[in-house]
Automatic annotation (TrEMBL):
This is Adenylosuccinate synthetase. It comes from Cryobacterium ruanii. It is found in: Cytoplasm. Mg(2+) binds at D13, G40. The active site is at D13 (proton acceptor), H41 (proton donor), K139. SMART domains: Adenylsucc_synt. SUPFAM superfamilies: P-loop containing nucleoside triphosphate hydrolases.
Length: 428
């Protein structure tokens, strides 16, 4: 049975939660392998809407084991809040497993995230201020706190002391903030241990055994390819690997266990935060996409920057991740437009460029070269087969497929759980 990686194919917010939910009843494990509570999935189940931030979307599917793997940074307080909120709504959250090796976000990470972002002024990255970047920085600098440390007070105290020895100098002398007390952090983290303990396990071994037992495992990436710390629009990126390669390092499964990579891509493009965005619209067309697509952050509520579909980015994503299937979401948002532009290439200093420029400067100055496609006016939210779509919508999807480097296997045609057209099976 397969190991399937599901990733965002643009700058995030593509609808990965919907795609995960589509597969949820057919998979046994759903694994979050990167990121933290700086991004969110919105999943609609009947009349209920669920906004998930740290938890894998699979927690909403009965019988699925949701896993927070080692590549995630965990704000334990947020984790408990999210679990409690779901429990109050009748969702069974008892199956959650959390990696012993996942790193923990502390209060000093959140503080540093906010003060350093403000300190950057016009050079701000556009972080959510939730401590994600500083927690990953500590991980790389080998001064991080891991989940397993919460169960050994002596080790925890030593690690917090070591981390704060440097950070308090920065907070006081550079940012004019008060020093953070070691005891304050240790006491808070220790208070989580008893509740957290039953959830914690060696998730890499758990997933290895699951695959050996013929279980289907879905690896759900947070953020998206263009926000990957290595392959995204650096430095305007997240602090982890949101690509399919991140599923390997972020979970402990071997590369040769991956059978399929599903890229989720919107029928147009959005991003949040700063950074280059060639097809961004600052006119009524951008506002049309924002309002009709309800393009406001699940986690932050920030309005998203909106633009037309960018085919070079889709091709780049297909190549970087080894995408076998695309899930195209929010096609219904384009209903009512007389004409739909698609970016097919860029102009950089007057020269046509067909692929995403590797140079940050070139990409920043790239202007889109568009090809226009006829729109449609028919309501498509009730459509369930490709042939039922208006001919113009079919032509649009087929054009994107031919430009994007892999087949479009499913199409989102509305916000409801069942509002999806399946062209090719995503598992078999």
């Amino acid at each position: 049975m397969p190991a399937i990686v599901l990733i965002g194919a643009q700058w995030g917010d593509e609808g990965k939660g919907k795609a995960t939910d589509l597969l949820g009843s057919r998979v046994d494990y759903v694994v979050k392998f990167n990121g933290g509570n700086n991004a969110g999935h919105t999943v609609v189940v009947g009349d209920e809407k669920y906004a998930l931030h740290l938890l894998p979307s699979g927690i909403l599917s009965p019988g699925v084991t949701p896993v927070i793997a080692n590549g995630v940074v965990v704000d334990v307080e947020v984790l408990f809040e999210e679990l409690d909120a779901l429990s109050e709504r009748g969702v069974d959250v008892s199956r959650l497993k959390v990696s012993l090796n996942a790193h923990v976000i502390t209060a000093y990470h959140r503080t540093l995230d906010k003060v350093t972002e403000r300190f950057l002024g016009k050079r701000q990255i556009g972080t959510t201020g939730r401590g994600i970047g500083p927690a990953y920085a500590d991980k790389i600098n080998r001064v991080g706190i891991r989940v397993q440390d919460l169960f050994d007070e002596n080790i925890l105290r030593q690690k917090v002391e070591g981390a704060l020895d440097q950070k308090n100098h920065m907070l006081v002398k550079v940012y004019n903030r008060r020093a953070i007390e070691v005891e304050e952090i240790v006491t808070e983290l220790l208070s989580y241990a008893e509740r957290l303990r039953p959830m914690v396990t060696d998730t890499a071994l758990l997933l290895h055994q699951a695959l050996n037992d013929g279980k289907t495992v879905l690896f759900e990436g947070g953020q998206a390819t263009m926000l990957d710390v290595d392959h995204g629009t650096y430095p305007f990126v997240t602090s982890s690997n949101a690509t399919s390669g991140g599923a390997v390092t972020g979970s402990g499964i071997a590369p040769n266990r991956i059978d399929r990579v599903i890229g989720v891509v919107k029928a147009y493009t959005t991003r949040v935060g700063s950074g280059p965005f060639p097809t961004e619209l600052s006119d009524e067309s951008g506002e049309y996409l924002r309002v009709n697509g309800f393009e406001f952050g699940t986690t932050t509520g920030r309005p998203r920057r909106c633009g037309w579909y960018d085919a070079p980015i889709a091709r780049y994503t297909a190549r970087i991740n080894g995408v076998t299937d695309f899930v195209l979401t929010k096609l219904d948002v384009l209903t009512g437009l007389a004409e739909i532009p698609v970016c097919v290439a860029y102009s950089v200093d007057g020269v046509r460029v067909d692929e995403v420029p590797v140079s940050q400067s070139d990409f920043h100055h790239a202007t889109p070269i568009y090809e226009n496609f006829p729109g449609w006016t028919e309501d498509i939210t009730g459509v369930r087969t490709f042939e039922e779509l208006p001919q113009a919508a079919q032509n649009y999807v087929l054009a994107l497929e031919s430009m994007s480097g892999s087949r479009v296997s499913a199409i989102g045609v509305g916000p409801d759980r069942e509002a999806i057209v399946v062209r090719h099976d995503l598992i078999d």
